[in-house]
Design brief:
- The structure holds two protein chains of two kinds.
- Chain A has helices at 17-27, 44-55; strands spanning 6-10, 34-39, 58-65, 68-74.
- Chain A is 30% helix and 34% strand.
- In chain A, strands 1-2-4-3 form a four-stranded mixed β-sheet, covered by helices on one side.
- The two termini of chain A are 21 Å apart.
- In chain A, β1, α1 (17-27) and β2 (34-39) form a beta-alpha-beta unit.
- Helices cover 40% and strands 18% of the residues of chain B.
- Classes of the chains: A alpha+beta, B alpha/beta.
- Chain A binds chain B through residues 12-17, 19-20, 22-24, 50-51, 54-56, and chain B through 1, 5, 24-25, 27-28, 30-34, 76-79, 84, 87, 90-91.
């Protein structure tokens, strides 16, 4: 099990909220730290990787169960 | 970090249906580390007048359904336009420009504009930014 530094609950939120919250959270994190994001917006499946691609963050793990999408993200 | 990507949007309409996509795209663009330039011109200028975002309605005959639409938006937890504007500003990547010609045409003074307006400019300034932008839109 990896050590998560910050957990971000975006359940029930729709675009653009998860991405805006993700940026706000990672802004104050240090490079290499891990963030766990949980979202229910189906758009986040593509949106979170697109955000990571542009900001240089790395997605370590993506899982889905019961309409909840979980991302483990390494901050750049 | 390499130079930021740039977005340049002409915001030509001041109605709710057009302003929502503007601020959703701008807040997301800012969160994706892009520099987003919003040029509020013609009817779009209403949006950056004090209280303008609160007054925005659906266009034409649909305006009667504005309250219902806003209710639905709130119900699913989508932020209001003023909240989205704040999110844009919090990214520190979204710049707001007011069109000087529109201000003269519609008799709008600098003090009538919201504090978030960074600069009052003309078409050449916007085009200069847009020519260097990877994303350009007219909304």
């Amino acid at each position: 099990m990896v050590n998560i530094d910050v957990e971000l609950d975006c359940k029930g939120m729709y675009c653009p909220m998860p991405i805006v919250k993700l940026k706000k959270a990672t802004k104050i994190m240090e490079s290499g730290q891990l963030l766990k994001l949980v979202a229910t917006d189906p758009g986040s499946v593509r949106d979170v990787p697109a955000w990571a691609k542009k900001t240089g963050a790395e997605i370590i793990e993506t899982t889905e169960s019961d309409g909840e999408y979980e991302f483990i993200i390494k901050v750049s | 970090m390499t130079e930021k990507m740039k977005h340049a949007y002409v915001v030509h309409s001041g109605t709710l249906d057009k302003l929502y996509p503007v601020f959703m795209l701008a807040s997301t663009g800012g969160a994706m580390d892009a520099e987003v330039h919003l040029f509020f011109t013609f009817w779009g200028l209403d949006a950056v007048k004090k209280g303008g975002l609160d007054k925005a309605k659906l266009p034409g005959i649909m305006s009667v359904g504005t309250g219902m639409m806003k209710g639905k938006i709130k119900k699913v937890g989508v932020p209001s336009l003023p909240e989205l504007l704040k999110m844009c500003r919090d990214t520190e990547n979204v710049k707001i420009y007011a069109c000087s010609t529109t201000m003269a045409m519609m008799d709008v003074k600098e003090e009538d504009l919201i504090d978030e307006v960074d600069e009052i400019v003309g078409a050449a300034t916007f085009l200069d930014l847009a020519m260097d932008a990877q994303v350009q839109m007219f909304i």
